[in-house]
Amino acid sequence: MKEINFKSLIITLVVGVAIWFIPVPDGVKPNAWHLLAIFVATIVGIISKAATMGTMAIIGITLCALTQVLAPGDPTKSILNALSGFGNSTIWLIGLAFFIARGFIKTGLGTRIAYSFIKIFGKSPLGLAYGLNTADLILAPAIPSNTARAGGVIFPIMKSIAVNMGSIPEKAETHRKIGAFLTLSSYNANMITSVMFLTATASNPMAQKFAKDLGVTITWGSWAIAALVPGLVCFLLVPIFLYKVFPPELKETKEAPAIAAKQLKEMGPITIKEWLMVATFIILLVLWIFGNLFSIDATTGALIGLCILLLCGVLTWEDVKSEKGAWDTIVWFSSLVMMGSFLNSLGFIGWFGHLVGGQMAHLSWQLAFPVIILVYSYCHYMFASATAQVAAMYSVFLAVGIAVGVPGTMLAIFLGACASLMGSLTHYGHGPAPIFFGSTYVDLKDWWKQGFFMSVLFLLIWFLVGGLWWKVIGLW
Q1: Pick the residue with more confidence: 448 or 2?
Q2: How far apart are CA 203 and CA 225, in angstroms?
Q3: What are 239-278's pLDDT values in tens digits?
Q4: Closest by alpha carbon to 72, among 26, 119, 35?
Q5: Which DSSP category does 364 fall into?
Q6: For residue 1, is pLDDT > 70?
Q7: Where, by residue number, does the polypeptide cross the bilayer (predicted)?
Q8: What's the whole-number mean pLDDT along residues 100-125?
Q9: In this structure, are residues 200 and 193 in contact, taking their beta carbons and an 8 Å threshold?
Q10: Phi, psi (rounded to 5 degrees) for 474
Q11: In angstroms, how far is the first alpha carbon of the chain from the final one?
Q12: In terms of CB atoms within 10 Å, which end of the chain has fewer, N or C?
């Protein structure tokens, strides 16, 4: 019973029942409105931590089947519809990428990459930051859990380096030596790398799926191209920005390359399994980028990659079975995508989009665009994950933007990016946040203060640099 917060669960139930019994607005089907009640209650339960995300997802699926909101009067079709999310290829793409990511951690390749960059760039705090962040960037396309990427590879190395440089978590007076700077740099870089590739965090494919439901098609390649320039500018500027506004006391870290070299020596020469992991990673990138030329979609490409790792012995079936994060994601992802998709197919998203869009009809799309982005972005204060925000708000905001004439692909990718970029705002704003905040190097006041500054920097870059880039590539 430790996983259940009964106070939050009661609040969740009250919210769901209240929406269910509100008179159905004109233009909305009764079953669409009742599905909304279940969907909102599920999201409230996730945000308030009434139960684990998986538990809330299963409750949501069960209620959809039990109330027959997806197929009134047909219990067989209702349960099939409720379980339809498990047949979604986007969901399995993320699950498969989790399995593949296990190879980076199991073989030690991810750690080797991180230490290699520290060895090269680590003579200064800025060099250390760029070394850690570059390792994150390289791992991002194939590790869809930025929590696993940050917590399993980057954070342990970052903390070890900080401690060796004199920043001791238990001694608050040492935090600003270098620990606080590296904490914020590594965390915010993780937010940036999470939006640069479709497969870098779980919320991106969810956004892709909801966008497709509204007639906007996004591929792995089109997402990467659109995010490339604003993402790289953010990647390059964030350590410099933090170095100016939140500087470390240490200005040189000459010992860091030696520490990295020692760790690499202890790891020994690169193994055959690591080389196989590298080869598989390259094959995956080729399939994801150029798969359309061979009629191979992204999920099939991921299946090919997993098969290679299993046949070569890099992974075993026991590794696949024990990858709890993947199976957990498949379950809750299926539930949220299923409900979001049916809200759209039953007409609710379109109805709400036109309703709100009508209120903004007097605005040109050039004015409506920043309003939509800003409201969506700073709503992230209410969310503990990008996935929860995408599930709750993405389709509605995208529908509103399309209704007032905002170019669909540009808005779809920007909204998808904002859900992760705004993880910078709070110490709970994204999966890796509690890990980095838990180091105690950055106190709550500084985290929120620097997080707000970072959000402004991100939005300025994506509006200005991103806007110019998107004009060049024809998104508007």
Answers
A1: 448
A2: 18
A3: 999 999 999 998 888 888 888 898 889 999 999 999 999 8
A4: 35
A5: -
A6: no
A7: 7-25, 31-48, 55-73, 79-101, 178-200, 220-243, 275-294, 300-317, 329-351, 363-384, 396-422, 451-470
A8: 84
A9: yes
A10: 85, 25
A11: 52
A12: N
Angle at 470 between CA 291 and CA 193, to 5 degrees: 65
Question: How far apart are the C-alpha atoms of 102 and 148, rounded to whole Å?
Answer: 9
Please state the rounded mean pLDDT for residues 347-356: 76
Yes or no: say if 111 and 236 are a contact pair by the CB < 8 Å rule: no
Instruction: Give yes or no for residue 105 having a pLDDT over 90.
Output: no
Does position 216 have pLDDT exceeding 90, yes or no?
yes
Structure tokens at 223: 């997402």
d(CA 441, CA 87): 43
Residues 131 and 158: their CA atoms lie apart, in Å, by 10
Residue 16: both structure tokens together:
């769901």
179 touches 167 (CB < 8 A):
yes
| Whether residue 449 has pLDDT greater than 90 | yes
* Residue in this structure with the two tokens 């050039």, named with its chain if needed: 366
CA–CA distance from 87 to each of 80, 83, 195, 297 (Å)?
Answer: 10, 8, 25, 15
Q: Using CA atoms, how far apart are residues 103 and 253, in angstroms rounded to an integer? A: 31
Q: Return d(Cα 434, Cα 432) in angstroms, integer.
A: 6
d(CA 255, CA 16): 57
| Burial zone of 163 (CB within 10 Å; 0-12 exposed, 13-18 middle, 19+ buried) | middle
Tokens of 373: 């982005």
